[in-house]
Amino acid sequence: MDPKALLSILRPINCAMIGFAVIVGVFVSKPPVLGAEGIVLGFVTGFAICGYSMVINDYYDIEVDRVNQPDRPLPSGAVSGSAALALAVAMLLVGVVASLILLNLTAVGIVLLYALLSWLYNFRAKKYGLSGNVIVASSLAIPFIYGGVVSGGDVASSLLLFMAGTAFLSGVGREVVKAMADVAGDEKRGIRSFARTHGTKAAAVVGAGFFLASVVSSLLPLVLISVSLFYRIGVVVPDVVFIYLAYAILSRPTGEGALKVKTRALFGMLIGLIVFIGGAF
Question: Around Cβ 236, how many Cβ atoms within 10 Å?
Fold first, then answer.
């Protein structure tokens, strides 16, 4: 078994972004006191549970990937199904244990909910189009809330909720667009993605709509609450990225165009995380 292939199914960059989102949630909720240990454990929890969901996704998607991405670790044979399951269980345990160390039952409940949603999505809900996309996108919003919970800060903070909402909307858009590149494989597994049931052009419109909605959500704090100068200036950058992505997918509503947009959307989300944490100060 190839260790690099095993690491790749974790999608460490994606997992690091989720871990970082937890840290952003911590700072934005403005906790009274939170030591370095708490911040590290929060990051580890986000990273580990995301890793669990990524591996489970590849495990259930192996037949789809044989068609769409045959060079992926599982369909290519670089990683066995049993090894993938073992890694998924290990990551789940790491995430649960890290949340238990924080001695916060609410945090443990959130972790278990996140894990359950990930399994439910890959086992069943993925077949039902937008409802599955909503579950995946919720996993992008939950880390912000989790960060506020584990820190003991103000979870009802307006900026924190706007951040979660923005992440959710951009996540739905990315998932809708992402499925445009998987139509052939989704047909094989019976997945009723929006692109498969309504066509790629309609999916491009919906995906672009969610991207633009995330831009609106990120701008609302400018007029509704008090935010830092860093946020007021910095939010322009990810917003320009998502406006461009909306234009790009509408201009080229194809599988190839979708692959480029879904990758660039991660870049926009990463910039957004930086802006959000800057908005906490």
Answer: 12
* 157-281 is classed CATH 1.20.120.1780: yes
Give me the pLDDT at residue 239, please: 95
Task: List the domain boundaries for the chain.
Answer: 1-153, 157-281
Domain formed by 1-153, architecture? Orthogonal Bundle (1.10)
Measured between its terminal Cα atoms, the distance across the chain in Å is 46
How many H-runs (helices) and E-runs (strands) does the chain carry?
A: 15, 0
Q: What is the pLDDT of residue 48?
A: 93
Q: How far apart are CA 258 and CA 205, in angstroms?
A: 12
**Planar angle of CA 220, 118, 121, nearest 5 degrees:** 95
Q: What are phi and psi of 227, to 5 degrees?
A: -130, 165
CA 38, 111, 169 angle in degrees (round to 5)? 100
Mean pLDDT by 10 residues, the chain (281 residues): 77 87 82 70 90 88 75 79 88 90 79 86 74 83 85 70 90 90 73 84 94 94 85 92 95 89 88 79 64
CA distance 142 to 201: 30
Residues, the chain, total?
281
Distance in angstroms (rounded) separating the CA atoms of residues 4 and 2: 5
